[in-house]
Amino acid sequence: MIPVREDLRALEGYHSPQIDVKVRLNTNESPLPPPPAWRDALAGEMSRVEWHRYPDRHATELREAIAAWHGVSPDMVFAANGSNEVLQTILLTYAGPGRTVATFEPTYQMHAQIARVVGSRVVEGERRADFTLGAEEIARVVGAAAPHVVFLTSPNNPTGLVEPAQRVEQLLSLAPGLVVVDEAYAQFADWSALGLVDESRPLVVTRTFSKTWSMAGVRLGYAIGPAWFVRALEAVVLPYHLDAAKQISGRLALRFVDEMDARVQLIVSERERISAAMRAMPIDVTPSGANFILFRPRAVPGRELWQALVDRDVLVRDCSAWPRLTDCLRVTVGTPDENDVFLAALAAALHANARVHR
Ligand code: PMP
Question: Please, which of 19, 151, 290, 293 could form a disulfide with 185 given CB 3.0 to 4.6 Å?
Answer without folding.
Answer: 290
